[in-house]
UniProtKB/TrEMBL annotation:
The keyword Amino-acid biosynthesis does not apply. GO terms for molecular function: 4 iron, 4 sulfur cluster binding; 4-hydroxy-3-methylbut-2-en-1-yl diphosphate synthase activity (ferredoxin); 4-hydroxy-3-methylbut-2-enyl-diphosphate synthase activity (flavodoxin); iron ion binding. Its cofactor is [4Fe-4S] cluster. [4Fe-4S] cluster binds at residues 300, 303, 346, 353. Its EC number is 1.17.7.3. Coiled coil: none annotated. InterPro entries: Dihydropteroate_synth-like_sf, IspG_bac, IspG_bac-typ, IspG_C, IspG_TIM, NO2/SO3_Rdtase_4Fe4S_sf. This is 4-hydroxy-3-methylbut-2-en-1-yl diphosphate synthase (flavodoxin). The lineage of its organism: Bacteria, Pseudomonadati, Pseudomonadota, Betaproteobacteria, Nitrosomonadales. Converts 2C-methyl-D-erythritol 2,4-cyclodiphosphate (ME-2,4cPP) into 1-hydroxy-2-methyl-2-(E)-butenyl 4-diphosphate.
Length: 420
């Protein structure tokens, strides 16, 4: 992977279970279940799937007494499955009671997410916030203070809007809203510290659903604190809209060194795979050169020279295969996540791109010689022909992975034949 030119913002380091956020740690990928937490088996299964896909922290809803009672069982099931991913509890409205009434839940969770807008108003809200922070102090847990513009404290926004209206030159309402989000996060963090929560156990987030607003808020927030920041476009949407919007917002901030952990809040399509949000988060970080998670497949878009769908089908099957192998390869073949595989459709860019990848194949375009040269570490090693090019190329990829990454040594193929 090309070395990143991004200079990360300097922050405190916060430990969530065995995962570091901020400091010199890489940007962490996290996700959230959409199961009913009262269903311990179903929730544990989805947590396992998210973790297997690469989610390094998984958040679960803790909204009822029954859900809080199931958290220890969820953790036990995960431990039995050999899954040590940290679980963060998402609390709204009644978190103070749940953390007090279910001490085992409070102890088992690796961290808590608290929304200042949903802990109660005035003195009652202050007391309930204090109860949650006291639980975090007692059990030595980190807290993400997660402000969301859909649930911002009403008294705060009313007060700030009134103050703005009295100014000789009032600010735009959007600017006031942005500032209210930041004030909510920072004052809540300061209050938490006064209650005894250490500075290095606080993560902040200020989520909105508009790209430009998210960028503006986080730029301002990053200048005013050294807490690690959790990035995410809330209610990003479904399908390509959610992916594009999240990428547009997060890429700008990450390029500026802002952001220590990310979540892509996609609305799953009916029957859709929840792990898609993990894949998108990883692909944002990897394509920006911030981290490597899985071998990258480089494939041409196709044109009038490539009316055959062979290269498209091969690229798709290779990409799916590589991602499916990563849970095993990640442990067995360190470094394999930085491998690149090129699947090209004709001679225009095919040989050149193939030579620059670790492994590349240049399939024939229209009216080209029906042969597919394969390049390994920049050198042509074999030419494939016939009806089983895809299967033979897949075997070459497997052979390369086992030879190069099992010992971490670089393979120098030269002109030696490659076993297929």
């Amino acid at each position: 992977m090309t070395q990143s030119l991004i200079t990360r913002r300097v922050t405190q380091r916060v430990m969530v279970g065995n995962v570091a956020i901020g400091g010199d740690a890489p940007v962490v990928v996290q996700s959230m279940t959409n199961t009913d937490t009262e269903d311990a088996a179903g929730t544990a299964r989805q947590v396992f799937e998210l973790a297997r896909a690469g989610s390094e922290i998984v958040r679960i809803t803790v909204n009822t007494a029954e859900a809080a009672a199931q958290v220890p069982h969820i953790r036990k099931i995960l431990d039995q499955m050999g899954c040590d991913v940290p679980l963060v509890g998402d609390f709204h409205y009644n978190g103070h009671r749940l953390l007090t009434d279910f001490p085992e839940c409070a102890q088992i969770l690796a961290g808590y997410r608290i929304n200042p807008g949903n802990v109660g108003r005035n003195r009652k809200g202050e007391d309930q916030f204090a109860m949650m922070i006291n639980a975090a102090c007692q059990y030595q847990k980190p807290v993400r203070i997660g402000v969301n513009w859909g649930s911002l404290e009403s008294d705060l926004i009313v007060r700030m809007m009134d103050e703005n209206a009295r100014l000789p030159e009032p600010k735009d309402a959007a600017e006031v809203m942005h500032e209210a989000l930041i004030v909510s996060a920072l004052t809540s963090a300061q209050r938490a510290e006064k209650l005894g929560l250490p500075h290095d156990r606080i993560v902040l987030s200020c989520k909105v659903s508009e790209v430009q607003s998210l960028i503006a808020v986080y730029r301002a927030l990053a200048k005013r604190c050294d807490y690690p920041l959790h990035l995410g476009l809330t209610e990003a949407g479904m399908g390509s809209k959610g992916i594009v919007a999240s990428t547009a917002a997060l890429a700008v901030l990450l390029q500026e060194g802002i952001g220590d952990t990310i979540r892509i809040s996609l609305t799953p399509e009916p029957g859709g795979d929840r792990t898609q949000e993990v894949v998108v988060a990883q692909e944002i970080l990897q394509t920006m050169g911030l981290r490597s998670f899985t071998p990258m497949v480089i494939a041409c878009p196709g044109c009038g020279r490539t009316t055959s769908t062979v290269f498209q089908e091969l690229a798709q099957s290779i990409q799916s295969y590589l991602r499916a192998q990563m849970p095993v390869w990640r442990e067995k073949y360190p470094g394999v996540e930085e491998m690149t595989v090129a699947v090209m459709g004709c001679v225009v860019n095919g040989p050149g791109e193939s030579k620059m990848a670790n492994i590349g194949i240049s399939l024939p375009g229209n009216n080209e010689n029906p042969a597919a040269p394969v390049y390994v570490d920049g050198e042509k090693v074999v030419t494939l022909r016939g009806d089983n090019i895809a299967g033979e190329f897949m075997r070459i990829v497997n052979n390369y992975v086992t030879r190069k990454y099992a010992s971490g040594d670089t393979v120098n193929h030269g002109s030696e034949p490659v076993s297929v």
